[in-house]
């Protein structure tokens, strides 16, 4: 039996915040939207979608971990929060491979070293799930290479995109 070699950014126990853009980029979806995308991704990859972290309390966020820098190659639709190279530091909680990691867990098991969610495949699924049938209602993309700006909408916690741009992060 061979054992998985875990990436160095997976903690030995508990959970730790990791700087995004260094070890990985992340795309975050809330609740049932994240579960729906994960379900389709898992089905289409024969049960191996890559590293996915799930928050099992609160807003039930799902984080899809991409190769560092891969997120900025796509325009993510409203409802998908992109964490990647940004003007300011951004962190994502990463659980240990085993043990008590509440409220975070690996949705499909901890990753192997060098394993990531396929960004292009993931982008297609997110766009199919979140993009309105008439995408002309989206804000016009700014191709200047600026960050994807997202604001949290009050008590509801939904992502609301404004000034949708190429790439990730917050100004």
The geometry reads as: globular
- Whole-angstrom Rg: 16 Å
Tell me the distance between the termini. Answer: 47 Å
H/E order of the elements? EEHEEEEEHEE
DSSP strand count = 9
Mean pLDDT: 77
Widest sheet: strand order?
5-2-4-3-7
User: pLDDT under 50 segments (min length 5)?
Assistant: 135-171
Q: Hey, roughly how much beta strand do the residues contain?
A: 15-25%
In helices, the fraction of residues equals 10-25%
Number of helices: 2
For the report, how would you describe the main beta sheet?
5 strands, antiparallel
Task: Indicate the structural class.
Answer: alpha+beta
Describe what you observe in this structure.
With 171 residues, the chain is an alpha+beta fold. Helices cover 15% and strands 22% of the residues. It contains two helices and nine strands. The chain has helices spanning 31-44, 119-130, and strands at residues 15-19, 25-29, 52-55, 62-66, 81-83, 91-95, 104-106, 150-153, 158-161. Strands 5-2-4-3-7 form a five-stranded antiparallel sheet. A two-stranded antiparallel ribbon has the order 1-6. The protein has a two-stranded antiparallel sheet with strand order 8-9. Strand 8 and strand 9 form a beta hairpin. The protein is globular, with a radius of gyration of 16 Å. The termini are far apart.
